[in-house]
């Protein structure tokens, strides 16, 4: 049974729930985000009934009714907690008979943002389907925020990885919008590992060329920061240069960030339906990660 995406209120903050311990953290985070966005909160429980039948054998309609009823009680309890914390928040919910990743990707067509806990949704689904967070982040039609149990430092900036040579504007825009809603600053992190030259190229001229290139790139980052600062004059901006791999740099910054924002290019073709290496690496390690979909150009016919 496929989810009716029309049931997702347009622009709502959608959070996946499954009755595990992580729900409390992700639902609270999603409710706070919905209030900041002045949007509705939509709780979604996905029941992968085909996986239940694969594990337990034939599943009858009575079994499905019981499973649906148990899921509905979990969703209703989570909705009640969200309303208690935010009395003015419009909260809706749905239980769908579909695997979690597929249901959440469908929901992302209308959602303003998808919020997920760090693990796969549901004990059985988690074992059989792998990381729901990774699948949804790779396939979603909009931004996805993955929340772990670690509590970010209060007042910490929104961290975003930047590359002046190929910087998708939607990634930086998400970071600035998120910072503005929270009354925080943006910390733009430019990570460029210092490469070790081959022995035959270890001379002063080559080293000078490398340092010149690094200086020019740093200037480009400063120009990028100045450009976005003009667009968002109410958001403080700082730039950090890191001489290490982007994943290492962003994970280190994540310890003192409210959220880390990375991009994921939506390349066309079955072989490209996956997260990039940086987004995937940060997703595994950082406490709160926002993965922003970036549309890549379709290849043109020769």
UniProtKB/TrEMBL annotation:
Signal peptide: none
UspA domain segment(s): 13-148, 158-288
The protein, known as: Universal stress protein
PANTHER family, A to Z: ADENINE NUCLEOTIDE ALPHA HYDROLASES-LIKE SUPERFAMILY PROTEIN, USPA DOMAIN-CONTAINING PROTEIN
Superkingdom to which the source organism belongs: Bacteria
Family classification: Belongs to the universal stress protein A family.
Species of origin: Georgenia ruanii
InterPro entries hit by this protein: Rossmann-like_a/b/a_fold, Universal_stress_UspA, UspA
């Amino acid at each position: 049974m496929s989810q009716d995406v029309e049931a997702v209120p347009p622009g709502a903050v959608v959070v996946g729930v499954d009755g595990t311990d992580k729900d409390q953290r992700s639902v609270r985070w999603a409710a706070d985000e919905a209030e900041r966005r002045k949007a509705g909160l939509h709780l979604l429980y996905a029941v992968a009934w085909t996986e239940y039948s694969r594990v337990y054998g034939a599943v009858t309609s009575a079994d499905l009714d019981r499973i649906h009823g148990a899921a509905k009680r979990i969703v209703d309890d989570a909705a009640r907690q969200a309303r208690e914390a935010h009395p003015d928040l419009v909260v809706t919910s749905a239980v769908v008979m579909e695997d979690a990743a597929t249901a959440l990707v469908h929901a992302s067509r209308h959602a303003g943002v998808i919020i997920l806990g760090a693990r796969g949704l549901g004990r059985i689904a988690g074992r059989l389907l792998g990381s729901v967070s990774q699948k949804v982040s790779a396939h979603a039609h909009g931004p996805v925020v993955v929340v772990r149990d670690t509590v970010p430092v209060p007042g910490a900036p929104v961290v975003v990885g930047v590359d002046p040579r190929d910087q998708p504007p939607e990634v930086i825009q998400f970071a600035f919008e998120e910072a503005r809603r929270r009354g925080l600053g943006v910390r733009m992190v430019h990570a460029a590992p210092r490469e070790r030259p081959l022995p035959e190229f270890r001379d002063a001229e080559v080293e000078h060329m490398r340092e010149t290139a690094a200086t020019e790139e740093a200037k480009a980052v400063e120009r990028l920061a100045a450009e976005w600062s003009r667009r968002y004059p109410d958001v403080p901006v700082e730039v950090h240069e890191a001489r290490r791999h982007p994943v290492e740099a962003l994970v280190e910054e994540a310890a003192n960030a409210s959220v880390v924002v990375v991009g994921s290019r939506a390349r066309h073709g079955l072989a490209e339906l996956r997260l990039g290496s940086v987004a995937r690496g940060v997703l595994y390690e950082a406490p709160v990660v926002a993965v922003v979909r970036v549309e890549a150009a379709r290849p043109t016919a020769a």
